[in-house]
Amino acid sequence: MPRPPRLSPDDVAAGLRSLPLWSGDTGGLHRTVQLASFPAAVAAIVAIADVAEEMDHHPDVDLRFRTLHLTLVSHSEQGVSALDLELARRIDALLPA
Ligand SMILES: C[C@H](O)[C@H](O)[C@H]1CNC2=NC(N)=NC(=O)C2=N1
């Protein structure tokens, strides 16, 4: 399936307006969340992995003890695409606010 093109700065900004837990720009979307424990954070990564595999679109993940740093970018497009906005929405449905 063809991958969607990267979005303009205005379109990324518009997408972020419906993703209040995220920040970023055309270089990437970012969210940091603290989970209850290290095992809980690993379990969250596993749940995110299932969504990423289903979408064939994967986050950049950095876990420091209970703090999970997520960055979403479309590497093949060297920017943020609609897939990143959709993945952000699906991650928000998995994680505590
Ligand atoms: C072959 C496979 O479809 C590609 O490598 C996918 C995998 N997941 C991906 N995830 C992200 N974030 N960007 C990509 O360009 C990408 N490409």
SSE blueprint and pairings:
Layout: H1 9-16, E1 23-25, E2 28-34, H2 38-55, E3 60-64, E4 67-72, H3 82-94
Antiparallel strand pairs: 1-2, 2-4, 3-4
Helix pairs in contact: 2-3
The structure holds ligand H2B.
GO biological process, one term: tetrahydrobiopterin biosynthetic process
EC number: 4.2.1.96
Keywords: Lyase
What labels describe this entry?
97 residues, alpha+beta, Gyrase A, domain 2, four-stranded antiparallel β-sheet, 40% helix, globular, binds the ligand C[C@H](O)[C@H](O)[C@H]1CNC2=NC(N)=NC(=O)C2=N1, PCD_sf, Pterin_deHydtase, Putative pterin-4-alpha-carbinolamine dehydratase
Multimeric organization? single chain
Q: What global shape is seen?
A: globular
Biggest pleated sheet: 4 strands, antiparallel
Low-confidence stretches: none
What compounds are bound to the protein?
A: the ligand C[C@H](O)[C@H](O)[C@H]1CNC2=NC(N)=NC(=O)C2=N1
Assess the beta-strand content as a share of residues: 15-25%
- How many H/I helical runs? 3
Helix content: 40-55%
Q: Compute the average pLDDT.
A: 97
Instruction: Tell me the radius of gyration.
Output: 13 Å
Distance between the termini: 32 Å
CATH class: Alpha Beta
Helix and strand sequence: HEEHEEH
Structural account:
This protein is α+β, with helices and mostly antiparallel strands and 97 residues long. A four-stranded antiparallel beta sheet has the order 1-2-4-3. It has one domain (27-94): Transcriptional coactivator/pterin dehydratase (Gyrase A, domain 2, 2-Layer Sandwich), CATH 3.30.1360.20. The mean pLDDT is 97. Helix content is 40%, strand content 22%. It binds ligand H2B. The ligand C[C@H](O)[C@H](O)[C@H]1CNC2=NC(N)=NC(=O)C2=N1 binds next to loops.
